[in-house]
Amino acid sequence: MLQEKLSPAPGSKRGRKRVGRGDGSGHGTYSGRGCKGQKSRAGYKMRPGFEGGQLPLIKRLPQKRGFVNIFRTEYSIVNIDKLGIFEPGSEVTPEKLVAAGVVKSLRRPIKILAVGEIAHPLVIKANKFSAAAKAKIEAAGGKVEEVGHAAQAS
Predict the structure, then answer these.
(1) b/e per residue, 75-93, with b = 16+ CB within 10 A?
(2) Which of 46, 86, 101, 142 could lock onto 121 through a cystine, CB 3.0 to 4.6 A?
(3) Statement: 76-151 belongs to CATH 3.30.365.10
(4) 91 backbone dihedrals φ, ψ, rounded to 5°
(5) C-alpha torsion sign, points 108, 129, 132, 139
(6) How far apart are the first and last CA of the chain?
(7) In which band, very low, low, confident or very high, does the pLDDT at 67 lie, cut at 50, 70 and 90?
(8) pTM above 0.85, yes or no
(9) Under DSSP, is residue 90 helix (H, G, I), strand (E, B) or coil?
(10) Rounded to an integer, what distance in angstroms lies between the CA atom of residue 135 and that of residue 89?
């Protein structure tokens, strides 16, 4: 079929509504705007969330307002009680944490928190450590090493 013979499917195109062209057109007199009022006037514009002077929902629910930092770094959290599965004296890297199923993926940087206790010394490599976690690991005879997020493979 030739390109110039193509036409849109029947019913897919509709002529524009020509308002104010007499009552016989079906869009005369009020031109589809109903009777009087703010919405019938020319230049009508209302800001989003305006409720006609009633206290808007956004002001009635203060917990829904606020700021969300889109650049925030989301960490994969690992509590030190989960590190008991590793052999004493072994090196715990982000890759080993994924292999052991402690962390789902290396997409997010890893942060070690001080929830629980650690019984044996470990050399732990992660992106961040809480101060309390660092203290607990070193008290158990272990070592902490902070690695940059860019250094680990995604």
Answers:
(1) bbebebebbeebeeeeebb
(2) 142
(3) no
(4) -95, 125
(5) positive
(6) 50
(7) confident
(8) no
(9) coil
(10) 17
